[in-house]
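Hello forum,

I keep getting stuck at the same step: I have a sequence, I want structure tokens, and every attempt I make locally crashes halfway through. Rather than fight my setup again tonight, could one of you with a working pipeline run this one for me? It's a single chain of 214 residues.
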Amino acid sequence: MKVSTRKPQGSKPGNQTRSLIILAIIIIVVTVASAGLIVPNVTSDYVVGGRGAVAMLSSMELQRPDLAVRGAPFQDEQGRTVTLEDFRGKIVVLNFWATWCPPCVKEMPGLDALQATLGGPHFAVVPVSTDRLSMAEIQDFANRQGWLDLPLYHDADKGLSQAMQVGGLPTTYVLDEAGRLLGQHAGMIDWTYEALVTKLRQRVEALEGAEAGS
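Reply #2:
Ran it on my machine without issues. Output:
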């Protein structure tokens, strides 16, 4: 009688080991994520915001044409028409944003803090919403976010956005006391970044010193 020498069919030990390893990795990843130990959004926001601040600082070091920026009329919270000329004599952080833009909303607390720290006769944060919402709806959104120190402006017809050639949100321009461009950046910025706050404070203090000496 002929006896078969073939081994019983089934999964090879190597395949079983690999499957167990893959399953273990999946379980570990799910467990860590569930425990809140993976926070890619927070890390990403911090890194992107810091890079944005550095990029703005670098932009402020460039030589610019000695000409005032030409804008277009926009509206304040009371619905009054204003222009960039109304902010002459101040260092201006002109920020274009929208309620539907997550990076815009994430950087607003930093702008709010910046206005609280430096805002006054020689400095202004000018956040200009490009939303299709009414000013009342934009105000309600800002109040719910807890932005207590930021004035609000609205570019309802996109005239200012087009004049400034805004290509995406958020986009920010820093203007000097004569309305000339000091720096610009398209993207999220960490407005609590120490070196950037110091740079802006130095500009404000220079204006204050010049006024005191005149």
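DSSP finds six helices and seven strands in the chain. If your local run keeps crashing, start a new thread with the error log.
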